[in-house]
Amino acid sequence: MKKISFQSLVEIFLVSTRLGFTSFGGPVAHLGYFHEEYVRRRKWMDEKSYADLVALCQFLPGPASSQVGIGIGVMRGGVIGGLVAFLGFTMPSVIALIVFALVLLEFNVADAGWIHGLKIVAVAVVAHAILGMAGKLAPDLKRKAIVLAALAVVLLWQTVFTQVGVIVVAGIIGYLLYKEHNVEKAPAFTFPLSRKFGAACLALFFGLLVLLPILREATSMNWIALFDSFYRSGALVFGGGHVVLPLLEREFVPTGWLTAEEFLAGYGAAQAVPGPLFTFAAYIGAVINGWQGGLFATFAIFLPAFLLILGALPFWDTLRRNPNIQGALMGVNAAVVGILIAAFYTPIWTSSIVEAIDFVFAAILFSMLVYWKLPPWVVVLTGAIGGALLSTLV
Predict the structure, then answer these.
(1) Of 120, 123, 126, which is closest to residue 386 (Cα–Cα)?
(2) SS3 assignment, position 355
(3) Could you give the dihedral angle defined by the CA atoms of residues 165, 169, 171 and 176, in that order, rounded to the nearest 10 degrees?
(4) The model's pTM
(5) Residues 84, 233: contact at Cβ < 8 Å?
(6) Which residues cross the membrane (predicted)?
(7) Domain boundaries, given as residue ranges, for the chain
(8) Mean pLDDT score of the chain, rounded to an integer?
(9) What pLDDT, on a 0 to 100 scale, did the predictor assign at position 124?
(10) How many Å apart are CA 108 and CA 226, to the nearest integer?
(11) 246 to each of 132, 329, 342, 343, 358, how far by Cα in Å?
């Protein structure tokens, strides 16, 4: 392990915290901010190493931008540096969303017009995400067919196992269809972590994924059920932060832990804060069990991402050259688009667009985001104000 001074850890924390306060715009934008700060300005990494790290984090399930930040921290300061970089980048949005949840509960404003406006913001944001992801992750007819099949299965057979099953089957289909896929040759790539340490992290990742559902069934402890729901959601997200939406919705809305209105209001608010979209979990945890629940949810949903990046770094050089693994991932990513479209229909569309004027307002917000390229916080603020005005007209 790389030895790191306290001064260097403070530097990593301050730089990552500044990025946590200013990185608006989603994962792709975050990667741009990271490149500017870590590669161009501070030269903590070279261009090739950064590109390889981004490729690894796109390959793994979980929040790609957070995992890139952790990886940069690891390169700079070992495992502790990765943890410090993660805390700095994540905590600003976690705190903001916990405060929002507590205000929402304290003043009972779930039915307020501006909350409905935030739900319409979610329509525009997820529609934008779907269009971008579909173009990149399902460019050919085979993967478009996987998208359609995943969409149909998730909507028509809504069980707790459906989404996991769809992802597994899509991976098998991707392997069969794309196992001859050409893999681009890449230069050698190393990180300051041993393979033994990486194997231990991967073993813990898969161990928790298997053990937590068993403990959940064997006990009646709410905190184990919550930990399992957040951990599993964080562990099964392929394709970006927006994909966590359907996973979290299936875990917490049907079970009655929070209402569809509370869920979508928080998702809309999550668009207004910088940092990773996974911090939406902090809002859900705070609605369920106050600020303690928010911190607990944050730990649980990010833990698999942390274990995966630490576990995969020592093996990445071998994995990225394997066409079979890349083929399976191509199928999984296509299925993810179908899952996200299903979530776009329900609960987002069905609970947000109830009048013609709602659709018009959603189209305006979508245009602001996609065509006028306005910052997400401007779109969210417009949604909240517009929702309050619409409530006085309808």
Answers:
(1) 120
(2) coil
(3) 170
(4) 0.74
(5) no
(6) 12-33, 82-107, 113-134, 146-177, 197-218, 268-288, 295-316, 328-346, 353-371
(7) 97-393
(8) 84
(9) 85
(10) 23
(11) 17, 19, 8, 5, 22
